[in-house]
Amino acid sequence: MESIFHEKQEGSLCAQHCLNNLLQGEYFSPVELSSIAQQLDEEERMRMAEGGVQTEEYRTFLQQPSGNMDDSGFFSIRVISSALGVWGLELVLFNSREYQQLRIDPIHEKAFICNYKEHWFTVRKLGQQWFNLNSLLTGPELISDTYLALFLAQLQQEGYSIFVIRGSLPECEADQILRIMQVEQQQRPKLIGEDEAQRCTDRHHMTYRTRQESSPSCCAVGGSDPSGAVTAGSSHESGSSEEAVLTAEELRRRRQVYFDRQQAQHSSSAGGEKDSGTKPSQ
Question: Where is the composition biased (Low complexity) (predicted)?
Answer without folding.
Answer: 233-243
